[in-house]
Amino acid sequence: MATLRVTLRVILRSMWRRAGGRYSLIVLGLWVLVSLVSLVWTPYSLLATDGFHVWSKPSAAHPLGTDGVGADVLSWLMAGSRTNLIIAALSVIVAAAFGLLLVAAMVSRHGALSAVSVVLVDALISVPTVLVALILCVPFGASAAVIVAACGFAYGLNLARILRPSAMLAARSAYVQSALHSGMPAARVFLTHIVPNTLPVLVVQLSMSAGTSILAEAGLTYLGIGVGAGVPSWGHSLATSVKFVGIYPLTVLWPGLVVTAVVVALNLLGDALRDAADPLANPALRGGQDER
């Protein structure tokens, strides 16, 4: 346990000393902090509206202004941060589980299963995420669950296709074959020997999937198949104000900046974490020595 803590400390310190890693840690830390704070406090209630002050400019009372019904933009963005955090986290979990399950089938020793799974992934990967969301929206209605399911399905297919080459190399290695011949269960071999060899690619792809899920939430909510009308989210803030961008541009600017900053941070996080956790790229991990 002590060794794990030292390793994590070295990785975080290495990420902090990289510009991209520092940016991602700061932005994502603020995102989580704001999400937690919004659970107990926002400047105004989300139900509070003021018909006499609609589309107000930033002021002391409303730092980011108000929207078309006089609701405080900052309060809705704060509350929306936790919705987007949950969607991003669940999308990554579903994509990782589904993608790794497909990878296990694609590198299986059963030739028929491997061949069918490869063809299946190549066929389904062409299905757009929006189409999957539309299909799910018919029986289940517009909700965050539809976004998570659609993103998890689409990103899982993409993850499986990208991980397959490195997983195949590991599956054909001598130590994996030796473990299989020694009687170790195939599932345990996959989790303990094959998956660790795909971690650099896996980390980058999952961080990009988290960022893309935020963009997907904004797009799907704008189309009316995302989160419900009363659920706060960054996509909801964009969808309700984009029609008036030519008249009140600031109401679109704030959620747009938040989405951009977080998506960039998530994309940089994967690269920074991959470099910081790689002993070949990070000398501080070799011999337990910290960077100076």
UniProtKB/TrEMBL annotation:
ABC transmembrane type-1 domain boundaries: 81-270
Membrane topology (UniProt): Multi-pass membrane protein
Name of the protein in its database record: ABC transporter permease
Transmembrane region(s): 21-41, 85-105, 112-136, 142-163, 214-235, 247-269
Pfam families, alphabetized: BPD_transp_1
Gene3D superfamilies noted in UniProt: MetI-like
Alphabetized UniProt keyword annotations: Cell membrane, Membrane, Transmembrane, Transmembrane helix, Transport
Family recorded in the similarity comment: Belongs to the binding-protein-dependent transport system permease family.
PANTHER family: D,D-DIPEPTIDE TRANSPORT SYSTEM PERMEASE PROTEIN DDPC-RELATED, OLIGOPEPTIDE TRANSPORT SYSTEM PERMEASE PROTEIN APPC
Organism: Bifidobacterium panos
Domain of life (superkingdom): Bacteria
Localization in the cell: Cell membrane
